[in-house]
Amino acid sequence: MARVLYLGGLGRSGTTLVERLLGELPGVVALGEVVHLWQRDLRDNERCGCGARFSACTFWRRVGERAFGGWGNVDVARIHALRDAVERTRHIPRLAATLAAAGASADVREYAGYYARVYAAAADVAGAEVVVDSSKHSALAHVLRFADDVDLRVVHVVRDPRGVAYSWTKTVARPETDGAEDMTRYSPARSALLWNAHNAAFGLLARRGVGVRRIQYEEFLSDPRAALIRLADFAGLALTTDDLAFLRPEYADLKVGHSAAGNPMRFTVGRLPLRRDDDWVRALPSGQRRLVGAVCAPMLRAYGYPLHPAAPQEA
Question: Which of 119, 95, 90 is nearest to 210 (CA)?
Answer without folding.
Answer: 95
